[in-house]
Amino acid sequence: MSPNAPLKAHRMTHGNNTRMPLPSDNTGEGLRLSPNNKTTPSNYMTDNTSPIRGRIHSIESFGTVDGPGIRFLAFMQGCPMRCLFCHNPDTWDTKAPAKYEWTAGQLLEETLRYRNFIKTGGVTCTGGEPLMQARFVCEYFRLCHAEGIHTALDTSGIIFNDEVLHLLEVTDLVLLDIKTVDDGLHRRLTSCPRTNTHRMMEHLQKTGKPVWIRHVVTPGINDDDPHLLGTAEYISHYSVVERVDILPYHVMGEYKYDSLEIPYPLKGTPPLSPEKKQYAVGLFRGMLSCKVV
Fold first, then answer.
1. For residue 251, what pLDDT is reported?
2. What is the mean pLDDT of residues 86-109?
3. Per-residue pLDDT at 19 exceeds 50
4. Of 192, 249, 191, nearest to 215 (Cα)?
5. Rounded Cα distance, 92 and 31, in Å
6. DSSP label at residue 116
7. Alpha carbon of 135 to those of 34, 138, 170, 173: distances in Å?
């Protein structure tokens, strides 16, 4: 995920000490319109008659790697995970100013400006973590379906509740990020347990929802044979997986940590080499019948 909007630096402070925002700081579902049409913060929407405003970090009108075809992308603000290899820390904080605070109808209106470009593709909501604004994304996807537009959800599966289940009903394709299948490593990598990601994978299999797996391979962390083979073996149990994307770790987002005054956790870790990526692709292809790239 690589939003291309200008970076805005945000810090969270306590006394004189700057700290990295924690998952507990990142709660909420966005904004809703109050009766006098002024926006007010809200956690999870309780007034179903008020249109939800999504908090959107950035948009991209010509995406080609986040689902099939040419796609309109909405990068949602907010993420509960703190992945060591994350290259978009500017999308973490739900309270940081968002470039757009739109209703689902307003986002659809913007989407339809590019209808001729995305007619063989569709829309993708990514992040950040779009499940933090599941009700908004669900409403947006329903409107897209009414217009005959294909919907894709790019997610870590880190949240699994009734609102997410409703969202999945109007999602045509799930791009599921699998960080690792090692429970202990997952917590060290992301600061979160793997439980909900597995629950989502099980649900997607049960409901027959098409899935593309995305797996970031990072040198010295999950690029060894046991990790690669273990991940491929896990994926092999799910017939709904149509494709696996091996994503090489890179350092292109390191400058954002400097701008946010956050220590870069993988300082000194080299990008994954093209040769190592192809090696990983070969291992996955040897164990899976789906497309691996």
1. 87
2. 91
3. no
4. 249
5. 17
6. H
7. 17, 5, 11, 17
Q: Which of 227, 229, 232, 235 is nearest to 197 (CA)?
A: 235
Threshold 0.90, pTM exceeds: no
Q: How far apart are CA 58 and CA 1, in angstroms?
A: 11
Instruction: Take residue 108 and report the two structure tokens written for it.
Output: 């659809």
Q: What is the pLDDT of residue 40?
A: 30
Helix-helix angle 162-169:195-207, to 10 degrees: 40
- Angle between helix axes 134-146 and 162-169 (nearest 10 degrees) is 20
pLDDT surpassing 70 at residue 132: yes
Give the contacts of 122 (CB within 8 A, at least 6 positions apart). Answer: 67, 68, 69, 71, 72, 144, 149, 150, 151, 152, 172
pLDDT of residue 50: 55
The two tokens of residue 152 are 């894709």
Residue 214 makes CB contacts below 8 A (sequence gap 6+) with 154, 175, 176, 177, 178, 244, 245, 247
Q: In CATH, which of 3.40.50.1000, 3.40.1280.10, 3.20.20.70, 3.40.30.10 is domain 52-292?
A: 3.20.20.70
For the cut 90, the answer to whether the pLDDT of residue 39 exceeds it is no
- β 291-292/241-248 pair status: parallel
Question: How many angstroms separate the first and last alpha carbons of the chain?
Answer: 17
For residues 145 and 112, the answer to whether their CB atoms sit within 8 Å is: no
What SS3 class is residue 11? coil
